[in-house]
Amino acid sequence: MVINMRIYILSPVRNVSQEQQDIIDNHVKTLELDGHEVYLPIRDTNQLDPTGMDICLSYLLAMLEADRIDIFWDITSSGSHFDLGMAFASGKRLKLIYTFTPDSEGKSYLKVIKELIEVQAKTKNHFCNRNFNYN
């Protein structure tokens, strides 16, 4: 039995290249053909917002309604940094679909994404089940 999900797409929006958008659109098309409901910000949110506040609220509400957040990561996308913070705090399942930029040395958001996905897989839950070392 296939369970249809609501899936939020976290991806570059403002400065997305055509090549990147094609990769994202192919994934969205596959998900929708499989019967999933997909929220694609560049398509499903009015991007004409003088401050960006309505956009951020729209994204947040869509994330909170989603069953999973699929990530197309581009370190150069500043909006994706904000969106990742919301996704992290939402407690939703994350799935890394594609990275448009290579990872950097040391700490990085990409490493955080990968570790959070690992923790979710092991605990069948959100990162709150992780034993944090605060020292």
Can you give the helix content as a percent range?
40-55%
The number of distinct structural domains comes to 1
> Which overall shape is indicated by the principal axes computed on the Cα atoms?
globular
Under CATH at level 1, the class stands as Alpha Beta
Structural class: alpha/beta
Radius of gyration: 15 Å
Largest sheet: 4 strands, parallel
Q: What do we call the CATH topology?
A: Rossmann fold
Cα-to-Cα separation, first versus last residue: 46 Å
Uncertain runs are: none
Written as H for each helix and E for each strand, in order along the chain, the element string is EHEHHEHEH
What is the strand content?
Answer: 15-25%
User: Main sheet: which strands, in order across?
Assistant: 2-1-3-4
The number of distinct β-strands equals 4
